[in-house]
Amino acid sequence: MYKTLSWAAVILWMGLIFYLSHQPAAASSELSSGVTEIVLRIIEKVVPNEDLDVSSIHHLIRKNAHFFIYFFLGMLVLHALRTSKDTRYQTIGLALLFCVLYAISDEIHQLFIPGRGAQVKDVLIDSAGAGVGIVGYLVLSRLINPARRT
């Protein structure tokens, strides 16, 4: 049951990534523009009268979204693999490979969406996010259960 729930979480998260990638460019930009506005309001409260480059902040938010979405995917995939396999070290490589392949397929998927395109840079950001998520999972699991070997 626990293994099934772990994989269900992975599939749901991948579904969210697919849904976000399936949005046309205008809808995707509108979503991240809303987040950008919230961030700008916070920055303006913390640092009033600061001259902000809105397009740079918007770009940074979009790229961070790539990173953090795959950060959590990396954690979820490693956790699901760990509930399914006994070989601990193999699961690390498999989790990263799984996430990188999904990032590549995600960019290919975007080739078929109006106004969207595939970018190698996004695959690299996604892969880095997954890698950091996997390391984060290993650190957290070690802190939570120090007797268990990674």
TrEMBL record:
Please list the residue ranges annotated as the VanZ-like domain: 7-140
InterPro entries xrefs: Phosphotransbutyrylase (IPR016747), VanZ-like (IPR006976)
Query: Membrane-spanning regions, if any?
Result: 65-81, 124-144
Determine the domain of life of the protein's source. Bacteria
The protein's UniProt keywords, in alphabetical order, are: Membrane, Transmembrane, Transmembrane helix
Matching entries from NCBIfam families are given as: vanZ_1
Name the record gives this protein? VanZ family protein
Query: What organism does the record attribute this protein to?
Result: Oceanobacillus polygoni
Supply the source organism's classification.
Answer: Bacteria, Bacillati, Bacillota, Bacilli, Bacillales
